[in-house]
Amino acid sequence: MQKRTVFETALVRRIPKKSDFLRYAAYEMSLEALRRKRVERLEMAKAPPSISDYALVRRQFQIFERALKKFKGDVGLWLQYIQVAKKEGARALVGRITARALQLHPNVPALYVLAASHELEHLSPSAARALLQRGLRLNADNVEMWREYVRMELGFVESLRRRWNVLGIEVKGKGKHKGASKGKGKEKEKEGDAEDPYLGLGEVNLEEEADRMEVDGEDVDEDEAARKEVMAGAIVKSVISSAAKAIPKIELFTSLHELISAYPSPPSLRESLLDHLHALLHKTLPSHPAAIKLSATRHLKADLVGEPLVDALKDANEQLLAYIRSTGGPVSPAVAAVYAEFVEEWCGKDVDDTLKAYLITSLHILIRQLPAPVPPGLLAAHIRLLASHHASLGSGLLPGKADSPEKILRTARKHTTKAPTSAAVWLARLGAERQFATQNEINAAWEEARKHVTGDRIQDVWLWGLEPANRRPPSPDCAPGTASEREHADIEAEVEVLEQLLHESSLIREPAATGALHEALLIRYAAASHRALRSRFRITSPPATIAQPPPRQRHIAKGRTNLSASAEARLARVRKIGSAYAPSARVWAEVFRQEAGGDSDVASTPAGGADAANDAYFGDADGDERVLRAVYEFWRQTDGVEATVAWATWLLRSGRSKDAVGVVARARSVLGEAAGETVERRWKSVLDGPEDAGVNSEEVPSAVWFDDAAAEETFAL
C-alpha cells in the first residue's frame, strides 16, 4: 500500500508526467509476475478463477487508461498498452484499443499493421484485409503499408495452397476430397514452414472443412480458371501493380523484392511474382541507377555457391557493363557509382580469388575503354581495389599493368590527372600512397591534393593528414627525450600544421567551401592547442636557480607559478583564435567546453563537476573566470543565446548564483526581447534540471517485462 500511495501521489501532480504512469504500470506488472511465480512454486491445486487472478492485471489496464486520458496523442503509449493487453491474452480489449487508437491516429501505419496482425492471429483474414486497405487509402505513400499488404496476400495464397494440398484438391482438376492424400499433404505442409504472422492464415479444423467442401461440391462447380489465377498469384500481382502506381520509388521495389525473395512460396510462384515486379520496375524506373543494379543482381543470392554463383555473378556483371557501354556518350556518374559499388561489394565478400580478380579486371578494362571523362567513382574504386587486394591476389591474378606496388602507384597518380578536382580519387590515391610510398611522397601527395581538390568531401582531403592512422610516427630511437616530451613535441607539431592549414584555407576562393572547411580546421586547432597547453604545464618543472623549499611547500610554490602562467597562456590562446581567425558559434562553443574543463555540455554538468575538472586541469579559479569571460564575450557576438546560457550555467555551477541571475536578467537589454525570452526559457530548464527519464516510453517494453528472478528480488519479503 505504501508503494501504491507513492505512485498515486505522483499521478495527481498539476503537470502529470508520462514516466510516472509507466513506472506505476511496471510495478504492477512485476507484482503480477511475482504472484504467478509463487503460485507455481507452491504447486497449488487448480481452482476456479478468483479475483486475485485478474485484479493486478485489471489494475495495469486501468493505469494505462488513466495515462491515455492525459496523453492521447502519444502513439508510443498506445502501442505499449496494446502490447500489455496482448501479453495478458485480452483479445477483445486489444481490438477495442486498436480501434480507438486508429480513430485518433489514422495516419500512423504501424497501428494498421498491428491491428491487422491481431486479426490474422485470430483467423480473420477478411478483417485484416479491410484494415490494411483502409490504411492504404489514408497512407497510400507509405512503403511499409504496401509491404505488409503484399505479405498478407502472399500468406493468403500460401494458406490456400496448403489447405487444398491437405484436402487433396488439385488445381488442374475439380475439387474433391481424397482421404488418402491427407497424410501426404500434412507432411508437405510441414516442409518449408517459416515464422511469419500471415503464414497459414485460416487453417482451422481441416476435417470439418473437407466435409463441408465435399457437400458443397455436389451442388457447386468451382471456376477452375479463377482458381488457377489465384494460385498463380493474380491477387498479389494486382497489389504489386497498385503499389507501383501509388509509389513509383526504388525503395518500394527494393522492399518488395526482398520480401518476395525470402517468402516461403513455391519456386514457380516466386519467380512469377519477381518477373512481374521487375517488369514494373523496368517500366516505371528505366534509367534509375539503383533500379538497374536491382534488376541485374536479382539472381544473386546469399546462399549461392559453386557454379551457380559464378554464372549469376558473371551475368550480373555483364548486364551492368552492357548498360554502361550502351549509353553512347559520357557515362552517368550515378550509374558508374552503382557499378563501382557492385564490384567493391563482391570483392569484399568471402568468394574465390578468381572471381575477385575477374571483377577487378573487368573494371580495369572498362576504364581503359571508356571515353573521357571517366567517372571519378570508377577511378577511385579501381585504386582502392588494387591497393587492398594486392597482397591477397598477387601479381598472378591482377591486371598486368597494375600487379606491383610501383605500378599501382603509377596508376593512382595517373587517375588523379584524369580527375584532378575529385576528392574521392585523391583520397583513394592517398590511401595507396600511405600503403606503398615513403613519408616524403605521402606529404607531397597530400599537399598536391589540397591545391587541386574542390567540391564535395574537400574537408576529408584537408583533414586526411591529421588523422593518426595516416601519419607514420618516428621511431622512439630517433626521437630524443622522455615519452612525455615526445608526446608534447608531437602535439606542438600538430598545432603548427593546423596553423599552416588555416592559412592555406583562407586563400581558397570558394566561399561555400571555405566556411565549412575553416570551421572544421578551427575546431581541430582549438582541440590541439588545448592539449598543447595541458601538456606544456604538466611537464614544466621549477627553475633550478630558485632555492628549493620543503617538499610540501615546493609543490604549492610550483603550482602557483604554473597556474599564473597557464591562465595567461589560455587567455592568449582565446584571443588569438578570436582575432587571427574567423571562428563560428560552433567553434566558440567547443572552446568554452574545453576551458570549462568538461568533455560534455556545461549545462548538463552536475554541480561541482566542472570545478573538479578545472582543479584537475589548472586549478586556478580566478584564471578560469578570466578565460571563460573572454570566450563568452567573443561567443556572444555570433550566438548570444547559447553564449549567455552557457556562461550563466557555469557561474551557477561555480557557486555564483547571483552573478548567473544577473547575466540572465540583462539578456533582454543586451540581446533583444526575442533572444532574451529564449534565454529565460532555457535558463528555467537549467534550473528545473532534466526531466526524470527513469522510464522511457520507447524502452518500456524491455524494462517492464521483468523475469521471475527480478520480480522475486524486487518484492522479496
TrEMBL record:
<feature type="domain" description="U3 small nucleolar RNA-associated protein 6 N-terminal">
    <location>
        <begin position="1"/>
        <end position="59"/>
    </location>
</feature>
<dbReference type="GO" id="GO:0030515">
    <property type="term" value="F:snoRNA binding"/>
</dbReference>
<keyword id="KW-0698">rRNA processing</keyword>
<dbReference type="GO" id="GO:0034388">
    <property type="term" value="C:Pwp2p-containing subcomplex of 90S preribosome"/>
</dbReference>
<dbReference type="InterPro" id="IPR003107">
    <property type="entry name" value="HAT"/>
</dbReference>
<feature type="compositionally biased region" description="Basic residues">
    <location>
        <begin position="174"/>
        <end position="183"/>
    </location>
</feature>
<dbReference type="GO" id="GO:0032040">
    <property type="term" value="C:small-subunit processome"/>
</dbReference>
<dbReference type="Pfam" id="PF08640">
    <property type="entry name" value="U3_assoc_6"/>
</dbReference>
<dbReference type="GO" id="GO:0000462">
    <property type="term" value="P:maturation of SSU-rRNA from tricistronic rRNA transcript (SSU-rRNA, 5.8S rRNA, LSU-rRNA)"/>
</dbReference>
<comment type="similarity">
    <text>Belongs to the UTP6 family.</text>
</comment>
<protein>
    <recommendedName>
        <fullName>U3 small nucleolar RNA-associated protein 6 N-terminal domain-containing protein</fullName>
    </recommendedName>
</protein>
<keyword id="KW-0677">Repeat</keyword>
<dbReference type="InterPro" id="IPR011990">
    <property type="entry name" value="TPR-like_helical_dom_sf"/>
</dbReference>
<feature type="region of interest" description="Disordered">
    <location>
        <begin position="174"/>
        <end position="197"/>
    </location>
</feature>
<dbReference type="InterPro" id="IPR013949">
    <property type="entry name" value="Utp6"/>
</dbReference>
<keyword id="KW-0539">Nucleus</keyword>
<dbReference type="InterPro" id="IPR055347">
    <property type="entry name" value="UTP6_N"/>
</dbReference>
